[in-house]
Amino acid sequence: MDVIDFGCGEGSNTRRFAELGARMTGIDLSEKMIGHARKAEHHVPLCIRYEVASYTGNTGFEDASFDAVVSTMALMDGPDFPAAMREAFRLLRPGGFIAFSVLHPCFITPGLQWQRDVKGKPTGLVVARYFDQTNFVESWRFGDRPSDEDVALFEVPRFPRTLCEYLNGVAHAGFRIVDVREPQPTPEACVAAPRFARWRDLAAFVLMIRAVRA
């Protein structure tokens, strides 16, 4: 299959898809990320093409160039989700599909706050400002890193959306939604990273959608 990865970053997931047998193309707005991806391709060639491009505009590829569009935790970081869906629809051949994951919009809200017991264990999640669509920049660090480590924080643009905006964005572009999932961390994952247990027991972290072009 000819597959394009929207928001491929440094290409780690793009390489995984290539290892499964797909003929991969990766696009990302960040020249530095694409530079890292191309270095990885140089060291371990998987015949992946990487280009600097925005998934919310014309990516520069011809109509009906791909069998599938994939995106892993990237589409929530773009300012125009409907435009991304229209571009995905344009790029797909009839019968092709899009499959993507994003932060779950019903739980990862601008007013997210954990409730904790006296020992600090999460017991619930406060969901607030669900309809607040004010864009903002989030600064964060990987939770598994030592708390006293002196590292530069990641800065990620956030464009809050509701669940219906994701579903309607897909449908209004012309796709037929065939699968919606809210995966839970496995018991094994929670043993390896105990902080995942809150997303297994209390709330959903990821929303996954697959849709086809007729």
Notes on the structure:
There is one protein chain. With 214 residues, this protein is an alpha/beta fold. 25% of the residues lie in helices and 31% in strands. The protein contains 6 helices and 11 strands. The chain has helices at residues 12-19, 31-43, 81-91, 163-172, 187-192, 197-201, and strands at 2-6, 23-28, 49-52, 66-72, 92-103, 113-116, 122-126, 136-140, 154-158, 176-181, 206-212. It has a 7-stranded mixed β-sheet with strand order 3-2-1-4-5-11-10, sandwiched between helices. Helix 3 packs parallel to helix 4 (163-172). The chain is globular. The mean pLDDT is 95.
Oligomer: single chain
Relative helix content: 10-25%
- Based on helices, strands and strand pairing, what is the structural class? alpha/beta
Low-confidence stretches: none
Summary of the model, kept short:
Helix content is 25%, strand content 31%.
Task: Give the topology, please.
Blueprint: E1 2-6, H1 12-19, E2 23-28, H2 31-43, E3 49-52, E4 66-72, H3 81-91, E5 92-103, E6 113-116, E7 122-126, E8 136-140, E9 154-158, H4 163-172, E10 176-181, H5 187-192, H6 197-201, E11 206-212
Parallel strand pairs: 1-2, 1-4, 2-3, 4-5
Antiparallel strand pairs: 5-11, 6-7, 8-9, 10-11
Helix pairs in contact: 3-4
What descriptors fit this protein?
alpha/beta; single chain; SAM-dependent methyltransferase; 25% helix; transferase; globular; 214 residues; two-stranded antiparallel sheet; Methyltransf_Superfamily
